[in-house]
Amino acid sequence: MAAPIKPKHVYTVLVIATIFTQANGFLEGLYCGQENCYDVIGVTRDATKQEITKAYRQLAKKLHPDMHKSAADKEIYGEKFQALGNAYEILKDEEQRKDYDYMLDNPELVYRHYYRYYRRRVAPKVDVRVVIAVTITIISAIQYLSAWNKYNAAINYLVTVPKYRIRASEIAKEEGLFDQLKKQKRRPKEEVKQEEEAIIKRVVEGNMDIKGGYARPSIYDVLWMKIILLPYAIGKYIIWWLNWVWRFTVKQEPYDIDAKIYLIRKNLKLSETQFEAIPEREREEYLRRQLWEKEKFKAWQKEKGEEMRIKLASSARYKSYRRWMKNQGPGGITFDD
Fold it and tell me: pTM of the entire structure?
């Protein structure tokens, strides 16, 4: 009966195997195993990619199993051909070849070589540029569909507003859009009503100039187009800024209407889209109050703040809120609704 293997003997064998592996620079299971990939193909480490490809093709013709007749030769050369193909796949790829050369130069870093090898094998081989392009495309599609959803919601709301609905019906009658429905007799009332609603909706959509966040979607507002047109936008801004400095700083020209609106937007901290969403009557009030001037804007802001404070002070809801803050506060526990 054979004597049992002691743990210390197993450890000794592993240590010897590790030392041998570190000595020859090869790791079993990684790259070409105990063989040198360069030797398998028959090239040196200084060989170019073209030289490696040429040597591989020459050897592949000799080692291909179909070039040999006997079953034993086919099996032997089949293994050699497989090893040749594996070596070529490693050396033709710049990143894998770099990792392999690193292993040859640093044989003692065993665990690092295993990590680098399997990280590259397991990690998905997807071009980062493709990922970025797909992400931008998805965001752009969501932007565009969301904008259409908001626009349709705005149109559906305007159709329910009496003054817009009445005006749209008048326009439809003037243009004879309802005449065709009157000619079509013996139709269900529900169907006729639906077509009338569709006509009114088309009239509202064709005559309403909706601005701001609910404006009609434009392909130029999506992320893809913003990125493509970014150089143009930057150039346009630089020209605008130089023109602004030349006219209003150097030549000391008085502000025109566009400049005044820009300064008012800047004081209000609103984008162009947000400013256009403000009712025209309020925008005219901003111009009348000369809010492009800092001092007048601050005075107007203080005035509006005081009006809001008085309005809130007279509000029953606000008084209830102040009592709640005084008696309980946000940390209070209560069973009241």
Answer: 0.50
